[in-house]
Amino acid sequence: MESTQVAATAQIINKDQLLTHWLGHRKVTRRALEAFPEKELFEFSIGGMRTYAQLTKEMLAMDGSTARGLATDDWGTFDEEKTELTTKADLLASYDESTEKIQNYWKDISMEKFQEKVVAFGQYDGTGYSILFYIIDNEIHHRGQGYVYLRALGITPPNFWEQY
Amino acid sequence: MESTQVAATAQIINKDQLLTHWLGHRKVTRRALEAFPEKELFEFSIGGMRTYAQLTKEMLAMDGSTARGLATDDWGTFDEEKTELTTKADLLASYDESTEKIQNYWKDISMEKFQEKVVAFGQYDGTGYSILFYIIDNEIHHRGQGYVYLRALGITPPNFWEQY
């Protein structure tokens, strides 16, 4: 009882909260993807950057696979080409599959894993938590860039703070 | 001993790691600010968005004050105008002051605070951790937008992954 209480009060963010945090961001990211016109999603960019479809594919190469990697140590190969995804509907469907994957693998990630050394995708050294935070942050980063693309296209992006 | 061990292994991210994570992002943000040319920092924007100086001022209204708020419950008033900051050197100096403030207040934030209900700046309901994660995420979001501004200006932004 004593030890449980200490563990509970000593937690900065617990596992349920971290999943809610991650999925909350994904709701915003999905809305941003949905806001893009089909053509511009695959063709528009600023300053020589990648298109938002390409940025989304990078997210899709990391998200579900990170949940699986943390749960099973199977990271698979890092594939951000995803040449099979050629329409907005494809990207949205793939994004939803990743969300489901995250929700399914989450329960199999042990609390200890967050503090273990991991080599994500066989090449990125980190700690469980640092890898996960990195891929969430990377998604926020690229989604923020997508907001500029949307604004440049005259489209109002989703509210950043509506993570529910 | 038993209870200490449980608390240690049950942690997703510990307090030192969270500070390192936050300060790591701030190093990247500082480099992004530094990369802007003086004039464009205050004048350039895309699609009717705020300038990067304005986005930086929003960050500066939240960062050090959040550390102080979590440490002391004194959130002060939310001021994102900061009309006194009129040059890049001003913004960089203010950013460095905030970093110092974060480092100084960090030790005074109790572990319990991260799970307490807080009303940030007298108006934003949340939990200690959620408010802190929000302002870090908000900085990543706007910095990502700054990267597009830099690319549009023909300037290579700092590497996102060099958070040290």
UniProtKB/TrEMBL annotation, chains A, B:
InterPro entries: DinB (IPR007837), DinB/YfiT-like (IPR034660)
Pfam families, per database record: DinB
MF annotations from Gene Ontology: metal ion binding
Keywords from the UniProt entry: Metal-binding
Binding site for a divalent metal cation: H142
Similarity remark: Belongs to the DinB family.
Name of the featured protein: Putative damage-inducible protein DinB
Species: Algoriphagus antarcticus
UniProt lineage: Bacteria, Pseudomonadati, Bacteroidota, Cytophagia, Cytophagales
